[in-house]
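---------- Forwarded message ----------

FYI, see the LysR family transcriptional regulator record below. Original note from H. follows.
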Amino acid sequence: MRVIPPIKAVINFEAAARLQSFKLAAEELCVTPGAVSHQISTLEEFIGQKLFQRQNRSIKLTNAGLRYYERTSSILSDLEQATTDLGRIHKQKQLKMALPPALLNKWLLPKFHLIANELEGVNVTFIDTLDYLDLQRDEIDISIRYGFEKPDGLYSDLLFKEDMIAVCAPHYHEQHFDKLSQSFLESSTLIYTTNRLVQWDLVLHHYGMKPLKWQRKLIFQNSIQAIDAAVLGCGVAFINRRLVEELLVQGQLIEAIQVNIDPDKVPSYYLVSSYENMQDENIAKFYQLLKKLCE
């Protein structure tokens, strides 16, 4: 068990030793000089040594008192600094954002450096999820939602529509295909993503085609895996262009064929917050910065 002196008595002692006066210590601590004297007597009794020499109306630290003051002053300073630092951390604005994993990994994080400097003093926690979290219940400040309709009852803006393209590794096909065709299907493994609203089947239907009975497929849970598979030459993925922009520029992926889909059948990404959240200066600023990334 720790042998710790009465904290109140230590604080009174430190003030009196630093100011060399019970009266001045009392003024600083908003107590009476008698109360300061009483606390110091309590501390001296606890330690078993005199800390002050009391001379008429003046006081002087004893050798023991001087040593004790040096230690306690340092300890109280450290405690004060630790409390101040913790207070700064607590006062830093904490923002929480929810968005689909692929959008976070392949779109937002590669661009985040463009807005990071404008978020000084703001900590952002990212929640990568495909679920529509309740903003109030789950304490989410901003989210990006994927769907065909703008969310009702929430502050929201269209970020961008799905711009879907068929991509593969540069040398995946030995021959060049200009468009979706039977020969393309016969020579391709189609990469599917189960959580996307636009899939290869919709593309084939749009062109009046059907998958081959023996069509080779790879099916993944999310677009991150589908993109990685395409880069590794495992097949042709039907992916949002924004998720593979860097890979196209770097030449790790190419557009396998030109595919056009009816815009009315394509979902969108919406930036979403609550009207209450948008009254917060930091949330509103982050919201606008995210919109700028899409311009």
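H. also flagged this: The longest strand covers residues 93-99.
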